[in-house]
Amino acid sequence: MIKWPKKVKRHGKVLAKIYRSEGRRGYRVCWQPVEGRRLMKSFATYGGTKGALQFAEAVVKEIATGSDTARLTPKQAREALSIFDALDAFRRKTGRDIAPLQAVSEYLDAARKLGEQHSLDAAVKGFLSNVATVQRADVSVAAEEFLAACTAKTKAPDGKRPQLSKVYAYMTGHFLRRFTDTFKGYAVCDLTKDNIDQFLGSLSELAPKTRNHYRSTIKMFLGWAVKKDYLAVTHRLFDAPAMKPEPLTSEDTDYYRPAELRQLLDHADDELRPIIALCAFAGLRLNESLRLTWDDVFRRRGHVDITSAKSKTRSRRLVEIVPALAEWLRPWHQRTGPLWSQSVDRYMERSVELRESLGIPSRRNGLRHAFCTYHYALHKGNEHYTAQQAGNSPAMIHAHYKGLATEEEAKEWFAVYPPDAAQNIVSLPLAAG
Fold this sequence. Notes:
Shape: rod-shaped
Structural class: alpha+beta
Number of helices: 18
Mean pLDDT: 87
CATH class of the largest domain: Mainly Alpha
Low-confidence stretches: 424-433
CATH architecture of the largest domain: Orthogonal Bundle
């Protein structure tokens, strides 16, 4: 005779009870884990493999051995198994093995941060729609792609001003290729702040202004790489200590001397000579002179016509053709087409070859600096006149070219004529003021 409720013991301690339902057939097993709330499960039979007694004995065994499964209700147990099945399916599909605790913890943390107004699914979709996947691209390959885009901007329809000058594109390529050559085999996304510091630290032989040009070029390239998804928006490479621009001290303007100009003009070939003469006697910037056609030079009698499409400042100006320049340009009066039809790279190569063959030191923008220096001295410090000719501001002329040369030295510069020119050419008139 069974006395109800039936007590199921383990080591003499009651750990579960079986109740017989009153008024209807059936049995209920009640138990309480060491930690947790009281649990209950109903059965149709008392004995047998699926009866209340067998279940109660199994539960008691689990409680006695400290198993946590006894704390689960049948529904919770089924849900736990479903979670394991879902994680296993995820592992087989993605190759990623995530523990149940990690999955639940990360979900709950995200749900807490999102609050009740946003679902996790909506947050993920919004994130993916705004975040690009970074692509791996070799530094050198990406740099050439960037430079090709720069080169494309140096071309424009006839009569229109290109976005970039050819000289600017050439110098950008010069700076950037030295940078990328240092990191061959690297992907853009693998660059670090230490890499940036290492490269800029290797440029100690250069002037601070030149190093700043390198910094600007690197910054442009990395900004472009972000737009191309070759580099993460959060890269922070600009925070590299060496990327901070260096303060510039006022340096003396360096320029060519009359004897050096004579050598350059006498030994230049027919392609280089007119460009050297225009920079030296008309103060043209190199990129302006390389854009010119012969029609620009001879269209206005006694003046070189620098249109807004060919001027660096995008402002048209007329530059006087002084007697020495007129003599050097005389052989080309019937010429048509562009002054220079080759690449900027080729001009740079040939001009460096010429200068080095003559033993003349490199002076950056030395011909234009010479024009401004000597023109300012020749016209007794009239910075407005020199600025108008050079396409610059009077303040800039006054700040950088005042007192660098005497009037006698200036006359010597503007008296560098071709060897066969007449010696009785009228001297330059002085400007009023």
